[in-house]
Amino acid sequence: MKYKEFGNSGTKNSVIGMGTYYDPLWIVTAKLGWLRDAEKKIQSLRAGLDAGINIIDTAELYGSEPLVKKAIEGYARNKIFLSTKVWPTHLKRERLFKSLEKSLQRLGTRYIDLYLIHFPGSKDSNREALLAMEDAVESGLIKFIGLSNFNLKDIIEARKTLRKNDITAIQNQYNLKHREPEKDLLPYCEKEKIAFMAYYPLAHGKLIEDKNIIDISKKLKITPAQLSILWLLRWNSVFPIPRASRPEHVIENVKAVDIEIPKEILDKI
Question: Does the pTM exceed 0.85?
Fold first, then answer.
């Protein structure tokens, strides 16, 4: 596994992470207490940890925090970078701290490495949440603050709101079929040293079925998933977080990191 600076955190993380958003049905059934294929998902996360991935991403919405807790049991906590998110209806200070405490309990940890606002709320609620998150940093409950699904204008506003900290990472969709971040977000993250966690790096499986991607992958003797991940890693700030649901897929993603493809080919893609 390769590692690189994670934004402005002063820490190095694996260049790819593992996501634990599965599907809407999973969220519904998880709330009812049924964690579908739980053991396989736990095995997938452990396969990634054993291979050197140290980023695991989850959220209070996903219903997967208890799975992450089981997956990381027996591993050194300080070697794992956990990120989770607070839902926009919980951005008021009191609600945010209640949500944070519940996430800590579900994850079985004393602190969260990266705590993100999952979706932006109103200007006032964003401000209240960010100031509360700064207090959470000071109290040791979280280490870094992040934003998910924010546009550039709101990211800049959030950074102005913070008094003692900075935004360490943002998390938005980015893949070969969704290239909107290239217009402004990615250049901004590169310049400002903010980590960009790319969710849906395989476009929810669409890229591994794309004929063009399949044809190019065959010529390069790699898989479509590996090609899609390597393409994202052209950016120094980007950390793809493909879903970890099957051990063999996680290992396939891990192997992509050590594959060398000439930049001109990636640029052509």
Answer: yes
